[in-house]
């Protein structure tokens, strides 16, 4: 038996036994690859998550806070409104941290928000003391 005959015999026996060494007769065409790709199942669409519901609630809460503290219809950036929005966020994040005490990243965000609110309050106190008193009383910030 020649070398070529032994190689053919081994290939035939590998095909029949289902061995991993079996080589296909020809490589798949581009068309065959496309058909296989189209037949592959698609990933299911993402479902609404718990986080999305929380975000939706916080958006509604933010709009309500802005509506109660704005001085005119389009007032969304005045110091008074910014302080009220930050206070709302701080309260929500504080509640989150009571449940998740090891969440260090959120704690860092909370500390940044408190610092930003403190700066805004200082600015408001220097520029308009009466409005500062109204804001602190309405939000219950100073005792």
Describe this structure in words.
With 143 residues, this protein is mainly alpha-helical. The protein has a domain at 50-139: Helix Hairpins, CATH 1.10.287.10. The protein is built from 6 helices and no strands. Helix 3 runs antiparallel to helix 4 (79-99), helix 4 runs antiparallel to helix 5 (104-127) and helix 5 (104-127) runs antiparallel to helix 6. It starts with a helix and ends with a helix.
Name its key features:
71% helix, mainly alpha, Helix Hairpins, 143 residues, 6 helices
Number-wise, the strands total: 0
Distance between the termini: 102 Å
Tell me the overall shape: rod-shaped
Order of helices and strands: HHHHHH
How large is the count of helical segments? 6
Q: Which parts are unreliable, with pLDDT below 50 for 5 consecutive residues or more?
A: none
CATH superfamily label of one domain: S15/NS1, RNA-binding
CATH architecture of one domain: Orthogonal Bundle
Mean pLDDT: 82
